TrEMBL record, chains A, B, C, D:
Organism: Pontibacterium sinense
Catalyses which reaction(s): catechol + O2 = (2Z,4E)-2-hydroxy-6-oxohexa-2,4-dienoate + H(+)
Keyword Iron: yes
Signal peptide range: none
Stored InterPro entries: Catechol_2-3_dOase (IPR017624), Glyas_Bleomycin-R_OHBP_Dase (IPR029068), Glyas_Fos-R_dOase_dom (IPR004360), GlyoxalaseI/FosfomycinResist (IPR050383), VOC_core (IPR037523), Xdiol_ring_cleave_dOase_1/2 (IPR000486), XylE-like_N (IPR054560)
GO molecular function term, any single one: catechol 2,3-dioxygenase activity
Known cofactor(s): Fe(2+)
Uppermost EC category: oxidoreductase
E.C. designation(s): 1.13.11.2
Segments forming domain VOC: 7-122, 150-269
Name recorded for this polypeptide: Metapyrocatechase
Pfam families per the UniProt record, alphabetical: Diox-like_N, Glyoxalase
Family: Belongs to the extradiol ring-cleavage dioxygenase family.
Keyword terms, alphabetized: Aromatic hydrocarbons catabolism, Dioxygenase, Iron, Metal-binding, Oxidoreductase, Repeat
Length: 307, 307, 307, 307
């Protein structure tokens, strides 16, 4: 949090059928359905998130990610970062308060990878779902499905990962937690964090801009990863890979697809990062083990199926 | 235990290099090394097993399983089963006491699938490894690797699964716990038990006789399956598949290969069976899900790589 | 299963208020409510049990256990055991088929500890709750509360534990899996099994006959024990002790009380037993560690609060 | 990290016998022994910590905590905080670089609760123990005992918790993550964080200044808490309470004592905190549940046994 960026606050995902998507994100992942706005977008959140929402589903003709937003400390920080982005050469678009229900003014910019990002300082805080603010129980009793606790991060594919890393580092104050370096010394992947989490966003180099690899949600335990895997099977949901562990971050994970073909991850554990830590490096020659620690080979799908 | 057969007591596995094999079964699986006999065979056991040994490694030119042995209640039972096997038409070979160190007289016969099985009534009981018989602690502190608790079962491939099932049922008193039925109503797989365990041996139909699919060892928890997976990666051991769950028995599992190419499984959990239970049936059309509950497809290797 | 006794099949528990008790056993323990009979008794079962029911709640003025019943292999076995019990000197009462809905003829006798036991050969098998008999999923999605999988055993207090052990061993074919021996060499506790489970019933010596210490239900994992503990707190249920581990059997456990003051246990794990195993011995001087492995002291309540 | 304080970096604990203490912290907790300095102090660390050490044991006549130190971003931050502390009215002592092996210049001050705290900007980074910086495995294979991953926080008892909270908030930039409020509205306990962790230090009001309640170490899973509990029993270590869960932070925990009577905690899980989160409040009337979520009563020992 060198520059006042706190955390990933929301992601807007394009889905082909909003009803099917809602069933997936609410009933299977176990996100809490919050409300539908006047544009027909559906808002959801993980039960541990104090903010009103973190996932927005928008019906569209093609799947993918519209944008990802970060919460900053306050409106002074937001103003400063707006100036800094412009000074860095970014075109900054202003989205007025209320365009997303319960969310204040957002400023939007494109990263060199071709993805849209937003910053905002205000969002309604409705508290952890199902728990009292005083003497809160350990968890709410009415959770569904995978019981995803929070939206955690996205992995995005696009060109110019290096320039994007520099923008996130220099303007937004992110740290490089983990990286993949190819034999020529180029950074093929960058896992960036504004906090103790191993990644608040990650990028992998790819020629096509603005591609969405997955949105990831946090679970509490490896038992919960098994439960997620069982539910994927019971609901005939398309699986990508898992349960397994990553080499990068060492998180315990499973990947699957929403009905529109967007990839989701649920995971638990994983390394922590502090701003004085050296980045962890994986060699591109060992990318199989870096991504899938147990199999030590990549499935082609993981590298090529994007939305 | 309808006829006095208690449990799988030992398996003798052929390995190409006894030193490499010992490193694998002792240091990676965490079996306890017991001793080497005058033939150069190495004896091992899981730490919870009270018997002197349960795994015998024999150096040979081709990998595979020599035989699998079952402990019976006492020598009267052994004598009766010997008569019953002969009456059933089996050729019974007698192995004198002491041919395996610490093991009494064994009677050996071939199943119609082409595998060698043994029965015996006596084996030296050295107690659980590392624990006192009085006030035993929860576990011994010096376990290695995967900390495999016991030899659990084998899965064997061969012809005449139906006839083999009948032999195990009618002569040895095993129950059919789970089965795979093909569209013509034939039994393609039979999981047989003499106890509450989901399988004390399992057979899958295949034209070639006497093939060895895997020897399986029991772990305590799903965390231990993850630990096994991590160790497989750390030791550059050849993995087959997992961590995952089976549809059949619902055990949580991982498969990998010993240095000779013999497949091993370590698993935890799984259904229990009582002798008045109907067998659980999986359809051959859904064999993918029956074997690998999460992926719902078989990898070719699982069906064809045998020793 | 030396004499054809398969497993604990049911326990009838006296409760002061049937509605409160049902809420406890169904909503908190997560047992499946099956039906209410013409006497107002409520039948429940754990979701993995294939039999129609395993727990019967009867409203009464004092809490405690009415009787515990065991399933035997078939009616020939039942007839034989009836003769054997009489020959042993037990008074045997016959309960006609249908007195418990869906249960065949039962024979009832008193153990020297003053507890009523039953044997029966027939009970309607409705299958595992919520799962298909063909291609069964790993677990049903609609489980509640602690998701107790099955009724496992009872611990009973009374005089003449030694004579009761002899009756169970000699007539019913149970094995002594674990025991507590006092400095004079007397058996202060006996854990008896007819299967691989560490106990299908347990007795502790106490002057007053027929006392009920607890009914125990099986969970799958240590995570489930934590979940049970959390639910006990969330529902303001009276806790006895846990989460902890036993020295005896090494099961992982938590104890609490139903609204009538009957003690319940839910636990997972624990040692397995085969009929050729020596019993495990704990010294009465170390009873604290034998019962509560971590604290190594008994709470007074555990020894004195009985129903 | 509002003011550049990153994390708890070390704690110096007084022990009565350095050899016994080392056996406890190294062999039981599983901390890595780093070295012994010229004063005879022993340095240790958790295996995930990149810094050279985090725990210092000093032999002394009375147990307790000498001081707790925090790492700050850089020497400019250190200089600024030194000025800020003085401006706030704190007496600041300078400890020269090298007084602790491998640690740069430290500035020390007393909190109003009577505890000594330190800040420093430099400490040798030796990396995670047993892992490569490139392609790191998931964990090192030679860990001992409880496998504690890192020093996490201390809980300290003393007067003036409110003034101490203000100092940590206003000068050091800590947030109030959780609190206990008594019926008069006074803050009886304050859990403070400089990061996403639920607490980087915690204070409970008590008349006697400078008392040490416990030093806490992080584990990965609830299975590891069980393992810790088993090891406490196997080594006849004095236990306080657990395994259990806290209401405050919802961490899963166990407490025990080192041979000098200093209390230790190992725990896993627990809530996360971001700087825009409202503090979680527990009522002092419900302190039992706040501290021990399952038992919902305090043991006297927890409140009164301090070093």
């Amino acid at each position: 949090m060198r520059k006042g960026v706190i955390r990933p606050g929301h992601v807007q995902i394009r889905v082909l059928d909003i009803t099917e998507a809602l069933a997936h994100y609410r009933d299977l992942l176990g996100l809490i359905e919050v409300e539908t706005d006047s544009q027909g977008r559906v808002y959801l959140k993980g039960w541990t998130e104090v903010d009103k929402f973190s996932v927005v589903l928008r019906e569209a003709d093609v799947p993918g990610m519209d944008f990802m937003g970060y919460k900053v400390l306050n409106s002074d920080v937001l103003g400063q970062l707006e100036e800094d982005l412009k000074a860095y050469g970014c075109e900054v678009e202003e989205i007025p308060a209320g365009e997303l229900n319960g969310c204040g003014r957002r400023i939007r910019f494109a990263a060199p990878t071709g993805h849209q990002f937003e910053l905002y300082a205000e969002k309604e805080q409705t508290g952890k779902w199902g728990l009292s603010k005083v003497n809160p129980e350990a968890w709410p009793r009415d959770l569904k499905g995978m019981k995803a606790t929070r939206f955690d991060h996205c992995l995005l594919y696009g060109p110019n990962v290096e320039a994007t890393y520099e923008l996130f580092r220099d303007v937004l104050g992110f740290d490089l937690a983990e990286q993949v370096i190819d034999p020529e010394g180029n950074r093929a992947a960058a896992f960036l964090t504004a906090s103790m989490k191993a990644h608040d966003v990650a990028f992998i180099e790819c020629p096509e801009p603005g591609k969405f690899h997955h949105a990831s949600f946090f679970l509490e335990t490896w038992e919960d990863v098994l439960r997620a895997a069982d539910l994927i099977s019971m609901t005939d949901t398309s699986i990508d890979i898992g349960p397994t562990r990553h080499g990068l971050t060492h998180g315990k994970t499973i990947y699957f697809f929403d009905p529109s073909g967007n990839r989701n991850e649920v995971f638990c554990g994983g390394d922590y990062h502090y701003p004085d830590h050296e980045p962890v490096t994986w060699k591109a020659e060992d990318l199989g083990k870096a991504i899938f620690y147990h199999d030590r080979v990549l499935n082609e799908r993981f590298l090529t199926v994007l939305t």
